[in-house]
Write a structure and sequence with these properties.
It is a single chain. With 353 residues, the chain is an alpha+beta fold. It has three domains: 92 residues, no CATH class; 114 residues, Alpha-Beta Plaits (2-Layer Sandwich); 90 residues, Arc Repressor Mutant, subunit A (Orthogonal Bundle). It is built from 14 helices and six strands. Strands 1, 2, 3, 4, 5 and 6 form a six-stranded mixed β-sheet that branches. A hairpin with a 2-residue loop joins strand 2 and strand 3. The longest helix has 43 residues. The radius of gyration is 33 Å and the shape is elongated. Belongs to the CdaR family. It holds the Pfam family GGDEF_2.
């Protein structure tokens, strides 16, 4: 690719300044340095490289140097060094400003996208700049750990570098929001989301990752994001151990709580009598949870609770005595299991229903 020529406007006055410095032996004054910084800023904004800008100034220096062959040659060289430093300072300042502006625009886009209240047409136009095409369906993965993360956080940078190193510049958007790591990718690129989950789980020292379902359009990104957040919240309430959760696998839980009052009534009716037990309902509810989670295998449930099988059997008998429902009876089991899930979702008995 041919090197772009530096316009004369970025060199204006430099030859005269150099000539005066060579004659007098002085250093550059404040205004002259400011003009070189401005030239550096404007060149950066115009898309010229710093190397081309400096080379153009050195070309002027070589062309004018024969007139400067005097006792003040050292001063002229010192002035050239000042010019190069001022050009670089202005150029870098413009680049830093552009980076900050890009970061601000990116953050505004992310907030608008995930909040779901922005104009969809305008959002789609902006999305192209950040590598998203809403003509494709997308899925969102969200990771959270023990700390809150920002885009400048080493954890976020580690995950980003790992994914970019493997997948390159695919249509992937990696960011953070509310202290969580977020990956937005085309829904058919499940390898990206799987890799993100693996990298994020490791980088957050065992944090949990949730993946929303694939949905089309900008609104689909919001929906997938909300599904991932809901999955994280559900995992917290249900004490789910899985490091990676898929919203598609958890659809039964929102269904169970869609009629909250009906679920609360079931919990009160089926499990309310457990409050009469010595120590309250919590130990027996924990027993039922372990029993159902272990596939109703008494030995495994006892191991999870650090109990003997005899002690577990006593607890199950006490539950039968208080509730009238036998956890080992298939007829009663479904009602009790559903009530236990409802209790965990509704945070009973910690909260009154």
């Amino acid at each position: 690719m041919a090197r772009r020529e530096i316009p004369e406007e970025f060199l204006d006055g430099y030859d005269r300044t150099l000539d005066d410095v060579a004659r007098t032996g002085r250093l550059l004054n404040r205004d002259e340095l400011a003009s070189r910084r401005t030239a550096g800023e404007q060149a950066a904004e115009a898309g010229h490289s710093l190397r081309s800008l400096i080379n153009s100034h050195l070309t002027v220096t070589r062309a004018a140097w024969p007139r400067h062959a005097s006792a003040h040659a050292d001063s002229a060289l010192a002035a050239v060094a000042q010019v190069v430093d001022a050009l670089a300072e202005g150029y870098e300042r413009a680049q830093h400003l552009a980076v900050r502006q890009e970061e601000a625009e990116r953050r505004e886009f992310i907030d608008d996208l995930l909040h779901g209240s922005a104009d969809l047409g305008r959002l789609a136009e902006r999305a192209e700049h950040f590598g998203l095409r809403f003509s494709h369906a997308h899925a969102v993965a969200v990771a959270e750990g023990t700390a809150a993360y920002s885009e400048a956080d080493p954890v976020a940078r580690r995950v980003e570098l790992a994914l970019l190193g493997r997948f390159g510049a695919r249509q992937i958007l990696l960011t953070t929001k509310d202290g969580r790591l977020i990956c937005i990718a085309p829904g058919d690129q499940t390898d990206v989301l799987t890799s993100f989950a693996k990298q994020a789980h490791a980088a957050t020292d065992g944090g949990r990752v949730a993946v929303g379902r694939t949905h089309p359009g900008a609104g689909g990104v919001v929906q997938s994001y909300q599904e991932a957040l809901n999955a994280l919240g559900l995992a917290e309430r249900m004490n789910l151990d899985d490091p990676v959760l898929y919203a598609a696998d958890l659809l039964v839980y929102p269904v169970l709580t869609r009629d909250r009052e009906a679920m609360a009534d079931l919990v009160r009716s089926a499990l309310g009598p457990l409050r009469q037990a010595r120590g309250g309902a919590e130990p027996l509810l924990e027993t039922l949870t372990a029993y159902f989670d272990s596939g109703c295998v008494s030995a495994e449930a006892a191991r999870r609770l650090s109990l003997s099988v005899r002690a577990l059997t006593y607890r199950l008998g006490r539950i039968h005595q208080l509730t009238g429902s036998n956890p080992a009876d298939p007829v009663h089991r479904y009602t009790l299991h559903t009530a236990v899930i409802g209790a965990r979702l509704l945070d009973w008995p910690a909260k009154e229903l």
